[in-house]
Amino acid sequence: MTSSHTPDQPAESDRSPAPTTLTAAQVVAHARFSEPGIDKSSALMLLYFVTGWLEEWNGRRVVDAGFEAWQHGPTDPGAHARFAETLPKRLRLPDDQMLELQVEAVVTWGLGGKPGQRKPVHSSALISAAKATRAYEEAAAAGKPAFASGPAIPTDRVTGAFHELAEAVAAGTTDGPSQPGEEERAEADRQAEAKRLRAQLAERFDTGPGLTEV
Predict the structure, then answer these.
(1) pTM of model > 0.90
(2) Three-state SS sequence of the chain
(3) Which of 33, 43, 134, 212 could hold 161 in an S-S bridge, CB 3.0 to 4.6 Å?
(4) Is residue 18 part of a domain?
């Protein structure tokens, strides 16, 4: 019997899964879930930071987003237009838990800490931080940012800007999110297992025999 695939085309079972790619809407939805009532500017700045940091940490473009230098900061025009219809939704990536942890790390950093530990979010701080990146500064200097439009920010400039930020964070000269590692993954696994066990117990009590039954 001959194989159904040629040596140049590996079988489906031999192929590595395609790297996870996120949409801008997924990131904005998670931001809205993480901070109920978050304003549009803050959510869009978080999208910018998630896009930049995830590319720096993974060595590839993870979030499908493109930015322009608007007056209020680097903005993805499509995400801006669809903000009202992008409902809050927690990001779940069971097949790529580390990526899920990375998104959460950036969003938590941008919002100033974990729920219950942070102060109210002010968009001005996120806008100032985003506008201070070299990618935005160079694009804004070359064009004319307006309220709802502006010059495009080249993706390679975003890549370079966040690489510089990562070096500055490592040197301790600026603030930035901490990249999750295996310790954070193990903790997330423990929490997921505890949640699964609690759900099993709840289901057992809900569907099991009553206390008065013999």
Answers:
(1) no
(2) CCCCCCCCCCCHHHCCCCCCCEEHHHHHHHHHHHCCCCCHHHHHHHHHHHHHHHHHHHCCCCEECCEEEECCEEECHHHHHCCCCCCCCCCCCCCCHHHHHHHHHHHHHHHCCCCCCCCCCCHHHHHHHHHCCHHHHHHHHHCCCCCCCCCEECHHHHHHHHHHHHHHHHHCCCCCCCCCCHHHHHHHHHHHHHHHHHHHHHHHHHHCCCCCCC
(3) 134
(4) no
Q: Which domain holds residue 41?
A: 24-204
For residue 137, give every residue at least 6 positions away whose Cβ sits within 8 Å of its Cβ, in sequence order, or none. Answer: 131
- Residues in Cβ contact with 79 at an 8 Å cutoff, skipping those fewer than 6 apart: 24, 25, 28, 44, 47, 65, 86
Task: Give dist(CA 164, CA 97) in Å, integer.
Answer: 26
First to last CA, the chain: 62
pLDDT digits (tens, 9 = 90+) for 102-111: 999 999 999 9
Structure tokens at 3: 């194989």
In a domain, 3, yes or no: no
Residue 13 resides in a domain:
no
Distances 125 to 15, 128, 173 between C-alpha atoms, Å: 44, 5, 18
Q: How many domains does one find in the chain?
A: 1
